[in-house]
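Morning!

This is the sequence you dropped in the shared folder:
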Amino acid sequence: MQLDFTRAITPGTDRARRLTSTTSTAGSAPKPRRRKKVVAPHWERGYRSHFYRNERGDKLGEVRLSERGDIPVVYHWAAGNYSGAEGSLAHARARVEETIGFGMRQLSLF
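The structure's back. Tokens below.
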């Protein structure tokens, strides 16, 4: 008597085929979900002021130019409970960004 190995490997009935196909897909790892991209805060330019806003549009900080006629020209910045004055726009923006970044981190206790 000769054995038929091809028949033993492949399922014979339709129901057996469906069961084998579902178990092979159920055993595989599920695809990971894509995470939403975190939108970083951005600067919104204005005529005499710039605002630092988050993805929802809430104002996190601001930089304002000194009043017309004031000498020397100074950039006043404010973020949270902190404020100050800087000589250049780049430095004032940096102060706002580091203040916001400082407030969003939990500092270590020790």
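Headline: The mean pLDDT is 80.

More detail when I'm at my desk.
O.
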